[in-house]
UniProtKB/TrEMBL annotation:
UniProt xrefs under Pfam families: Amidohydro_3 (PF07969)
CDD domains: YtcJ_like
Domain Amidohydrolase positions: 52-534
Organism: Geobacter pickeringii
Lineage: Bacteria, Pseudomonadati, Thermodesulfobacteriota, Desulfuromonadia, Geobacterales
Keyword Hydrolase belongs to the record: yes
The protein's name: Amidohydrolase
Length: 623
């Protein structure tokens, strides 16, 4: 047996391996786990073995998101100002104003999803007047999930939206009494107008896109992610939009493992799209860091039921069955795994009719397939999924839209959105994720909190105990569960001999920290393929060489990613003033007390990052 490359010891290591559920040490060699146990593993070390004292930290298998849009998101990550985790709308507007002042002519300030107004102390959306006031000259686009988009006047001019611009087939340009666009774009019946508006904005040059993608992966490492399944995405073209991540793979600069799916490209040409892609790649082609996973999440445009709970459920067209059968028959005959986006049971039941028909003609046996989302799937549909051997990848979209669902459908309907416990009871494979970056934040701890606490990011309770998971159950879905969806069961998801050496040590003990603090957990040490890709706190000396942020004016350089305004040290370092707040009689009405409480709670949750900040002399925060 070769001497280990790395030994971690003196930890509380949760393995998710039933034969040894918890150990204190583990060894890694050649990117694989070679031993688990106690401190006796240190006796196998040689002078070439690296040793890391975990100092009692909780260690878990690296997290694995079964549904993200990282390849697309990485191309623009450095351009985006993140409101994910921001506790106050006033703070978000302050960030927007500051970023507008440093953004050069010809570029935009963009807030691209991942937030909900219910996370704010004010519990409301920004107004167009507020956005125009903080950025009168620099174009601004604020995307709110896939429901709405807000353009300031400068962005309306840049897009060319005028009184004479007709509404597109897939959206509404809101107009004032004179017929002029106000700046509000409404996704009705789907998000086509929002996709189109994102597409009008400037893109980064290739070298900056590579830098941006690396920073996004590092941000995921900071939160303990080591693997994901990329679900394709609207306006994401294969192979053109995959060139950046493929180059990073060739360079050996990926720090998150990815299995990618291929999204259909053009309405009414879906079969031709997949036939073309089948000549370029195949499921399994690649390696443990980057490889093809199959087709989806959209297979045909006629089967797209967008999850906008501010709007009524869409009635999908009558050609759904014909279009879907043509594509699924091709995939089944070619043994291509596939996934399909589906929100409502009304859509799911029609899709299942097609799948059952195809299965009778071309048996699915050996072809992995699954649904994504399934917020309102019925028990009958679950039984049909089980009978066909399918799986379900769930995401915490309800954490961001739960209040809308409650208003439209009521508490009883919301109780099973989705019915996770029933899925598990039936033995259906289930993987957890986020659907980031637009309709939810990429932070896996927000998703784990949602599974455990059953609440939205705004604190609204959605589920009774019957449809909530224990902490271990939720973690299993985010590790072992998700591995099924990339065909890697037994290769990743547990800390067990022979599995990939991907683990993370946490700021707080996930199993004992109070429930509300789950969403504030981060990594202090993330290891992928047996190598340290992120280190903080007592492991900061192990952190890889810092990567410059490109372009120089990037919001990421100043604010970072999730929970950006909490990183006051980074803001101060880059010349952003720390606002001094003066209390007035209006404070209570504007949510000052609540906002301060929210920020202090967030700072406490992120204490390892900000423990040395308090010497700046600011004793009150403005919002």
């Amino acid at each position: 047996m070769n001497a280990p490359d790395l030994i971690l010891y003196n930890g509380k290591i949760t393995t998710l391996d039933t034969t040894q559920p918890q150990v204190s040490a583990m060894a890694m060699t050649g990117g694989r786990i070679t031993a688990i146990g106690g401190e006796e593993l240190l006796t196998t070390a040689t002078e070439k073995t690296n040793r890391i004292d975990l100092k009692g930290r909780r260690v878990i298998p690296g997290l694995n998101d079964s549904h993200m849009h990282v390849i697309r998101g990485g191309l623009s990550y450095n351009l985006e100002l993140r409101w994910d985790g921001v506790p106050s709308l006033a703070d978000g507007l302050r960030m927007l104003k500051e970023q507008a002042q440093r953004t050069p002519p010809g570029q935009w300030v963009r807030v691209i999803g991942g937030w909900s107004e219910f996370q704010f102390a004010e519990r409301r959306m920004p107004t167009l007047d507020e956005i125009n006031a903080v950025s009168p000259d620099t174009p601004v686009f604020v995307l709110h999930l896939y429901c709405r988009g807000m353009l300031n006047r400068a962005a309306l001019r840049a897009c060319g939206y005028t009184k004479d611009t007709p509404n597109p087939p897939a959206g509404e340009i809101q107009r004032d009494k004179n017929g002029d666009p106000t700046g509000l774009l409404i996704a009705r019946p789907n998000a086509g107008i929002l996709y189109a508006t994102v597409g009008k904005q400037p893109k980064l040059p290739p070298e900056h896109q590579m830098n941006s993608s690396r920073h996004f992966m590092r941000e995921l490492n900071r939160l303990g992610l080591t693997s994901l399944v990329d679900a394709g995405g609207g306006s994401q073209i294969y192979p053109d939009d995959y060139q950046i991540i493929e180059e990073l793979h060739r360079r050996g600069e990926m720090t998150v493992r990815m299995a990618y799916n291929i999204f259909t490209q053009k309405p009414q040409e879906e079969k031709e799209d997949f036939l073309r892609c089948m000549k370029l790649t195949a499921p399994g082609r690649g390696d443990d860091f980057y490889r093809c996973n199959g087709a989806g999440e959209m297979l045909v445009y006629s089967a797209a039921d967008f999850e906008d709970f501010l709007e009524p459920r869409p009635d999908l067209p009558s050609n759904l069955e014909k279009d879907l059968k043509e594509v699924v028959s091709l995939l089944a005959a070619s043994k291509w795994p596939f996934r399909i986006h589906a929100t409502y049971d009304e859509s799911i039941s029609r899709m299942l009719n097609v799948f059952e028909e195809v299965n009778r003609e071309i048996p699915f046996e050996g072809t992995q397939w699954f649904f994504d989302h399934c917020e309102t799937i019925s028990d009958r549909s679950l039984e049909r999924v089980k009978a066909l051997g399918g799986g379900i990848a769930i995401q915490n979209r309800m954490a961001f839209q739960g209040e809308y669902f409650l208003d439209r459908y009521g508490r009883e309907a919301a109780e099973r959105t989705p019915p996770v416990r029933k899925m598990l009871d039936l033995g259906i494979p289930v993987g957890a994720g986020t659907d980031a970056t637009r309709v939810a934040s990429y932070n896996p701890w927000v998703s784990l909190y949602w599974l455990v606490a059953g609440k939205t990011v705004g604190g609204a309770p959605l589920y009774s105990e019957a449809n909530r998971l224990s902490r271990e159950e939720a973690l299993r879905l985010y590790t072992r569960g998700s591995s099924w969806f990339s065909g890697e069961s037994g290769k990743k998801g547990a800390i067990a001999v022979g599995q990939l050496a991907d683990v993370t040590a946490l700021t707080d003990d996930y199993f004992t920290v109070e429930e509300e603090k789950i969403k504030g957990i981060e990594s202090v040490l993330t290891i992928v393929d047996g190598k340290v890709v992120y280190g903080a706190g007592e492991f900061g000396n192990l952190d890889p060489t810092p990567l410059p942020v490109l372009p120089e004016w990037s919001p990421v350089k100043v604010y970072g990613g999730y929970g950006a305004p909490l990183d006051m040290r980074k803001a101060v370092r880059h010349g952003v003033p720390v606002p001094q707040h003066r209390h007035t009689a209006e404070c209570h009405a504007h949510g000052c007390h609540h906002a301060a409480h929210q920020l202090l709670a967030g700072c406490k949750a992120g204490a390892p990052r900000y423990a040395d900040f308090w010497g700046l002399g600011c004793d009150c925060f403005a919002f």
